[in-house]
Specification:
With 80 residues, this protein is mainly α. The chain is built from three helices and no strands. It is 66% helix and 0% strand.
Length: 80
Amino acid sequence: MPDMSASASLAMTQLAALAKEVDEDKVTPGVLGFIVFAAMALAVWALMKSMSKHMGKVEFEETPQKEADASGKDKGKVTS
């Protein structure tokens, strides 16, 4: 690990003392991965809450099928 700074090297030696065995080939997400995942989860939660609020404001009334067919047939007719 020649390209690590002195503070990073010191931190690694202190963390290595806490762990029984450190596998240098093992990669873990760590604290940064957790923070990114938590931020994404909060963003999705906020978007879903906002979507639910906006969908509640929508007033939609579907026309019955018979009325829709009758109004569609009258528009297509040409009278002479």
